[in-house]
């Protein structure tokens, strides 16, 4: 996680205290969606640091409909925020609505909130459109001095956007997901390491990489980890990353060999001249 400037940390901390009271009062009054949007707008400004008049847009037009709120930095759309009344549960149909807004606008991230619960999603522009929850917070349960809570708020703050912390957080989360780890375990490089270690234990037994991979796939890893859309997506990312790494090693090796040849030639020339 990126370092949070002290002024920003203090703003986030004080914002938690202030708006927990406001949200609790609004919930007890069961305010409607319009009033909830006003509260969320104030939160975006006072907690998350966006300028209310130039960086927050209400009723953002998307084709023939409107998303409640959007944030912009330097005129560029960053985040859509779909808001529901404070007393409403954020059901799946509301998630679909928010994700559809983001997909139609071509925006990577969208937040669905009722003021208290905030759910942030990363949109995958696949067929069909898919989404992954990045984080969920219950604002009434946040601790004003809890660093984990402050860091989550920082993810969608103005300063956080400027440092791309939400993208970094998502990358770390994906790298530690069971699908990504499953794909890594089944990669040729990891299977090779397992094979090498097994040879140390049983040097006289012949075991192929394919045999190891089959056992890991069928008997060690859960089926849900290695099958399905998320598993396939993780597999593609791992293979792409490993392929890129291998090519990089080959290039470095070739460059190193060329440098050695040049240095050797220079030394030979110096000896001849001497």
**CATH class (first level) name of the largest domain:** Alpha Beta
Mean pLDDT: 85
Report, as a whole number of angstroms, the end-to-end distance.
Answer: 58 Å
Strand content: 15-25%
List the quaternary state of the chains.
single chain
Class of secondary structure makeup: alpha+beta
Low-confidence stretches: none
Helix and strand string, N-terminal first?
A: HHEEEHEEEHHHHHHHH
Task: For the largest sheet, list the strands in their spatial order.
Answer: 1-2-3-4-5-6
Overall description:
The protein has 274 residues and is α+β, with helices and mostly antiparallel strands. The chain has two domains: 6-163, tt1808, chain A (Alpha-Beta Complex), CATH 3.90.1570.30; 178-273, no CATH class. The chain has eleven helices and six strands. The protein has helices at residues 6-29, 33-46, 92-105, 147-155, 158-162, 165-175, 178-185, 188-201, 209-220, 223-226, 229-273; strands at residues 56-62, 65-73, 76-83, 109-113, 117-124, 130-138. It has a six-stranded mixed sheet, sandwiched between helices. A hairpin with a 2-residue loop joins strand 2 (65-73) and strand 3. The relative contact order is 0.09.
């Amino acid at each position: 996680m990126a370092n949070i400037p002290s002024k920003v940390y203090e703003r986030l901390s004080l914002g938690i205290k202030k708006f927990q009271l406001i949200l609790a009062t609004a919930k007890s009054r069961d305010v409607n969606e319009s009033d909830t949007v006003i509260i969320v707008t104030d939160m975006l400004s006072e907690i998350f640091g966006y300028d209310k008049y130039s960086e927050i847009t209400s009723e953002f037009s998307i084709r023939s409909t409107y998303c409640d709120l959007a944030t912009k930095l330097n005129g560029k759309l960053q985040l859509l925020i779909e808001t529901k009344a404070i007393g409403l549960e954020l059901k799946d149909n509301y998630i679909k609505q928010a994700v559809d807004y983001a997909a139609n606008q071509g925006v990577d991230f969208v937040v669905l909130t009722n003021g208290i619960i905030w759910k942030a999603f990363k949109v995958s522009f696949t067929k069909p459109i898919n989404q992954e929850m990045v984080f969920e917070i219950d604002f009434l349960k946040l601790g004003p001095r809890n660093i984990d809570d402050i860091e989550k708020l920082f993810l969608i703050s103005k300063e956080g956007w400027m440092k791309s912390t939400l993208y970094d957080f998502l990358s770390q989360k994906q790298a530690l997901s069971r699908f990504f780890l499953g794909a890594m375990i089944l990669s040729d490089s990891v299977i090779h390491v397992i094979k090498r270690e097994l040879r140390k234990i049983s040097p006289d037994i012949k075991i192929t990489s394919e045999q190891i991979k089959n056992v890991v796939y069928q008997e060690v890893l859960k089926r849900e980890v290695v099958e399905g859309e998320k598993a396939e997506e993780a597999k593609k990312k791992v293979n792409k990353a490993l392929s890129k790494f291998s090519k990089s090693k080959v290039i470095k090796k070739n460059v190193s060999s060329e440098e050695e040849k040049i240095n050797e030639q220079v030394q030979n020339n110096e000896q001849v001249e001497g």
